[in-house]
Amino acid sequence: MDLTKEQLARIWLQCAPMAVWNKLREWQEHLGGPEQLWDVFSPDFHSMLGDQVFSQMADMRANRCRDVLYQLDALGAKPLFFGSGDYPAVLSTIENPPDVLFCRGTLSGPDTPAVAIVGSRSATRYGMAQARRIARDLAAQGVVIVSGLARGIDSAAHLGALDAGGKTVAVLGSGIGVIYPQEHKDLARAIVDHGGAIVSELSPDAQPLPYHFPVRNRIISGLSDAVLLIEARLKSGTHTTIQDALDQGREVFALPGNVDAPGSELPLKLLKEGAHLCTCADDILAEMNWHARPPEQGSFLSDEEDEDDPILRALALEEKTLEELIAETGMPVNELSTQLTLLEISGKIERRAGRAYARVRS
Questions:
Q1: Looking at per-residue confidence, does 224 or 339 come out higher?
Q2: Residue 68's closest CA among 170, 202, 215?
Q3: Nearest Cα to 245, choosing from 265, 266, 230, 224?
Q4: Which residues contact 105 (CB under 8 A, 6 or more apart)?
Q5: Is the pLDDT reported for residue 301 higher than 50?
Q6: Full DSSP string of 96-157
Q7: pLDDT higher than 80, residue 292
């Protein structure tokens, strides 16, 4: 990887501990740039940085910058420098954009629409299903799905994009060489293999420390034209992503949920405050003028066969428990259980918490 001295200095500073980023930025501005800071870095900085940070930065300058370049090569990744042609144009407009963004995979061009889908790690089946469905339908229309590779809503959003053969971008709270959580390594690989990207502003070997995640959230919203919230409590990390989106002038959408569900707290609050209501991909597509809304469907029941099925008719408007379905359809338990299994296999219904069943909305 051929880099100029200035680019090497920028990588050196980008890989410094997050706690001193602001201080380093001040010094760069005072000295004239990253290359000048590289040149004057000496033991004189020891008292200003402290033992640990000074040792880390001295080691990085002497040895580990080379190691970072080796890691990037091994990962098939590259650094994207602010101000360069391959740096995401939409990200460059936010306050405090990363000076260097480490990227494994391919980011889409500036004319490709992108939507961030975010929400709780402790998502319900309803939230997971809706995130995956909306992501799938957006990706099918050429929209890039951006999220954070976390458990819950994030992973459902990435999977939905992959379901449609679309592209998705994961913004990590660790380095691109440290996939977190570890069980999402296959998902991360699939994202890259299908034309998407894994990105981070942190050193490729950075660990997923708790304070990394709120800071990275500005990149999730910054890479997107709009942000969709699906399930989150009022006091949650997701709230920082929404605040970043509002500060960046992004359109904010929220999916409504049950009014007494903990995960509905933040979405319902945002809807009261003027966020756009979203129940399907077309709500976003229409609001963003990415294409016209199709004609409204007259019924959730799609054909005559469905209308004749007593189970599907019972589930037309809302989910029902097994006991409610027994009472409403009048079917014997064994027969009802068999038909529920067949409908679930065919993809017409899905099982939910509390022995409940619901229609799968296309």
A1: 224
A2: 202
A3: 224
A4: 77, 169, 191, 192, 195, 196, 197, 198
A5: no
A6: S--SEEEEEE-PPPTTS-EEEEEE-SS--HHHHHHHHHHHHHHHHTTPEEEE---TTHHHHH
A7: no
Q: Is the distance from CB of 160 to CB of 130 less than 8 angstroms?
A: no
Inter-CA distances, 17 with 23, 24, 175, 187, Å: 11, 10, 12, 28
Length of the chain in residues, anyone? 362
Q: Which amino acid is at 124?
A: T
| pLDDT top residue among 360 and 138 | 138
Strand pairing category for 226-230 and 144-147: unpaired
d(CA 280, CA 297): 12
DSSP 171-200: E-SS-TTS-SSGGGHHHHHHHHHTT-EEEE
The residues facing 320 across adjacent strands are: 357
Beta carbons of 190 and 198 less than 8 angstroms apart: no
Vertex 28: Cα angle to 87 and 9 (nearest 5): 55
Contact 344, 351 (CB under 8 A): yes
- Collect all residues with Cβ–Cβ distance below 8 Å to 106 and sequence separation of at least 6: 167, 195, 196, 197
Q: What is the DSSP string of 8-52?
A: HHHHHHHTS-GGGHHHHHHHHHHHTSHHHHHHH-SGGGHHHH-HH
Instruction: Look over the chain and give the mean of its residue pLDDT values, rounded to a whole number.
Output: 89
Locate 189 and state its tokens: 């690989």
Q: What is the DSSP letter of 353?
A: T
Residue 90 has pLDDT above 60, yes or no: yes
Q: Which pTM value belongs to this model?
A: 0.81
Structure tokens at 303: 């054909």
Residue with tokens 């699939």: 190
Output the six-digit token pair for 177: 């060489």
